[in-house]
Amino acid sequence: MPAYWFTCPECGAHVAVDEGARDRLLSAGCAVCGVPVGPAAFTESNTFGTSA
Ligand SMILES: [Zn+2]
Questions:
Q1: Which one, of 11, 8, 10, lies nearest residue 42 by Cα?
Q2: Which InterPro entries match (predicted)?
């Protein structure tokens, strides 16, 4: 499953999100402060949820 780190450029919120949550943030903005966010606020994570 694709996973991303979201870092809010406004309030600094830093959370791991899956693709669905990423889409919601892109359309609705930061869940904490409500600022609009773009793709640049996300970093792909290849290790989310793995124990390798
Ligand atoms: Zn925020």
A1: 8
A2: DUF7560
Domain total for the chain?
1
This prediction's pTM: 0.80
Whether 52 is in a domain gets the answer no
Q: Which domain holds residue 32?
A: 3-44
Spacing, Cα 37 to ligand 1 middle (Å):
9
- Per-residue pLDDT of 21-44, as tens digits, reads 999 999 999 999 999 999 999 999
Report CA(21)–ligand 1 centroid distance (Å): 14
